[in-house]
Amino acid sequence: QAKRAGRNTYRWYTSRLIRDANHRVALRNSLEQAIILNKLQLHYQPQVNCQDWRFSGSEALVRWVEPERGIILPGEFIPLAEETGQIIRLGAWVLEQACRDNRSLIDAGFTHHRMAVNISPLQLRQPNFADTVRQALDRTGHPPELLDLEITESVLKADAQQIVATLEAIRDLGVGIVIDDFGSGYSSLSYIKHLPATKLKIDRQFIRDIISNRKDASITQGIIAMVEKLGLTLVVVGVETEAHAQFLKRNHCDVLQGQLFAHPVPFDELKPLLTKGPPKLEQDPESTTPTL
Ligand code: C2E
Ligand code: MG
Ligand code: MG
Questions:
Q1: CA atoms of 225 and 229, how far apart (whole Å)
Q2: C-alpha of residue 286 to centroid of ligand 2, in Å
Q3: What are the residue boundaries of the EAL domain, all occurrences included (predicted)?
């Protein structure tokens, strides 16, 4: 009985593997079509500057738009694109499109609006990646100092020296380097030491419980202090509640991004959103000076 169940499980498992393999081939081919047929779209999520409580820039987040399936999120196709190598072309398209869109915002009067673009480790490992960045800037006329490239800690896993050289060449162009998902890896501190970063971005998992969990609050405060000492800028993503925003603002975090302020939107909805600005916070009781 148990044996038969085992065999059935095995059979189910192999057929599933085959199905998945077929599925992956199909997915790779349709991603190819999506790239060719311009079915990729960039959405933008604005970021709030804590100093003046204005939107100071946005992060470009790629979407795959299929008429029947709707919007496919990057978590579903970026890993595949990395496996097949399609990420190189996809990533180059994202970079240039984000620069082009931001250039048009800058021309429309949002003169200081920054653009953050996610870069895959595979793109960074291309020996000529700094040239790709320079070309995107040249072709779109985007000011280098308003562009930030977001990289993850995993970039240093292979050939650290070459990666650092590439990042330094990009820094020399005037472009900012953001360490994304900071704290989620195992050797975060050595990354800060070796990478020519200008910003650190901590993600949602870290700040989710800062209100209820003393430890999480202390870690976040520690990161904020470290970032300040290093002369870097701290961005926090995944800000969902007013309490989060108040805690982070009170603790002198630099830039906030999250659903509390705005979801990622298509480019044609970005300008009105930026014009309207972020919602004001309710009065923060802990930040008011006590009356004596
Ligand atoms: P990420 O770079 O860490 O981007 C932040 C993700 O958090 C985005 O998910 C964003 O929509 C989501 N997010 C922002 N605020 C909140 C919030 O308040 N609550 C919650 N629950 N989520 C929030 P998205 O758009 O699904 O992107 C997922 C990941 O895919 C990105 O994580 C990034 O690593 C990758 N990605 C997106 N676009 C690109 C791209 O053009 N190239 C590459 N290589 N990767 C990309
Ligand atoms: Mg990012
Ligand atoms: Mg993240």
A1: 6
A2: 31
A3: 24-278
